[in-house]
Amino acid sequence: MTEQKKQNATKAFYITTTLPYVNAEPHIGFAMEIIRADIIARYKKLMGFDVFFNTGTDEHGLKVFKKSEEEGVDIKNYVDKYAQKFKDLLKLLNISKDIHFVRTTDAHHKSAAQHFWELCDKSGDIYKKNYKIKYCVSCELEKTESELENGRCAIHPHASLEIIEEENYFFKFSKYQSKLLDFYKNNPGFVVPNFRFNEIKKFVERGLDDFSVSRLKSKMPWGVPVPKDPDHVMYVWFDALVNYVSTLGWPESTANYEKYWVNGTPTQYAGKDNLRQQSAMWQAMLVSAGLSNSHNIVINGFINMGGEKMSKSLGNVVSPEKLVEEYGPDALRYFLVKEISNFEDSDFTLERFKEAYNANLANGLGNLVSRIMKMAEANLEDFKPVFDESISKNDFYKNSFESFKIQEAVEHIWASIKSLDQEIQHKEPFKLVKTNKEEGVEVIKSMVAKLFSIAEMLEPVLPETSEKIKFLIKENKSPNIPLFPRKD
Predict the structure, then answer these.
(1) DSSP states of 260-297 as a string?
(2) Which is nearest to 296 in space by CA: 273, 281, 272, 278?
(3) Are 116 and 240 in contact (CB under 8 A)?
(4) How far is Cα 478 from Cα 84, in angstroms, rounded to an integer?
């Protein structure tokens, strides 16, 4: 273990995804988010950090309640069914086995959300008033006129807005404008990427409106009960955001909260439609409750289909299960971090997926491993490459991950793959061993060592493939079947 890893072993790192709504089957939009968070979690573990990795399911709110009614299914049975589908997705995508999975219907989470409410109420930040708003059920957010396009939500233009007019509890979001701006100023790398940070700063600078944090139970019974008021349930966003600390055992047990949230670097992955909730609303709520703020909010772009946002409500989604069944989990992991932009919107097509698979996995990495290990099996005896901690010395690789530029890190790996492939073409060790055995063997040894280094760099990104390559090297065997069979 390097000195750096020894130092990191005393450090805690916390990372979480948002919690997807259980109103439909999982699609590759969430698969992208959980895979990227998993890669960062695996990288941090590789660097020696003590990592707490969180995900789960958001199971309250009007959208979920309406879907259960449409399907004619008891609401509890409905959310149980879909929560299990998201749990199954973790195994399907080869997500880290030690991940924590929180459900917002868990008894502990509901209790934590109620305690959080009481803390905000004690700070004088919760009050009741009558109001009338335009509400997007798909976003589970109220919409101002400036956020509408042709009278509809810009993110969900196919969904009709609802008019909500009732007495609700509100959170004094307006109270936190200056505190949020000061926090942003003192934490210049808080939101990644920077253009999203500028976006939320401008939103807060324009002034903040208090937001509703409850719904009448008579109209929407599926939610966490508001403390001391049985006529109201919590607004789904208020309830769900608390999962980031409830999953740590807060408030009954504060050990993990102190270790990973207060003294760690809590990092939250989210889509761009979550920017306001994660980087402004949640941060104000944390201050109100007397808790520490998040450390980083990492914002992904959307995956589009034919230029239109992939959305469960639109029905234009792609199933990660079908892709994994045909291509394997690492093929999907590769595509969602190498071929899809880190932070901008990107288009997905099955044709593009297959083309990238054949070019960069089947003909690229897979072919390289096969060529090198065939030469090694035929010419090397008892060769064990020594890992020289090359990752810990690779500043570009590390800096890319530390700044959440996963695509940049993966492109660096593929540049190494291309370079090694070009070296084979240039040095032709398969010919050299026939004319100068000793020199040819040394060239092959060098190539196996470089392949081992590539496998190490691949460990956070393509864990299954990394393990297979290292096993082949350890056994000095060529693969019996291609790592990535070509798809015609």
Answers:
(1) IIISS--EEEEEGGGHHIIIIIHHHHHHHHT-PPPSEE
(2) 278
(3) no
(4) 39
Are 473 and 387 a contacting pair, CB within 8 Å? no
- The verdict on whether omega for the bond into residue 251 sits within 30 degrees of 0, i.e. cis, is yes
Cα dist from 407 to 18, 47, 348, 414, whole Å: 21, 19, 16, 10
Burial class (CB in 10 A: 0-12, 13-18, 19+), 417: buried
List the chain residues with pLDDT less than 50.
1
- Cβ contacts of 8 within 8 Å, gap of 6 or more: 47, 48, 49
Ordered domains of the chain (ranges, CATH):
3-309 (3.40.50.620), 349-475 (1.10.730.10)
pLDDT of residue 310: 63
- The reported pLDDT for the residue numbered 359 is 97
Q: Which of 239, 205, 298 is nearest to 109 (CA)?
A: 239
The predicted model scores a pTM of 0.90
**What number of residues does the chain have?**
488
List the structure tokens of 293.
Answer: 């703020």
Is the distance from CB of 19 to CB of 237 less than 8 angstroms?
Answer: no
| Helix (DSSP H) and strand (DSSP E) numbers for the chain | 22, 18
pLDDT for res 1: 47
- Give the long-range contacts of residues 449-454, CB within 8 A, separation 24 or more: 449/385, 449/386, 450/416, 450/420, 450/423, 451/368, 451/369, 451/372, 451/373, 451/420, 452/385, 452/387, 453/387, 453/390, 453/391, 453/416, 454/413, 454/416, 454/417, 454/420
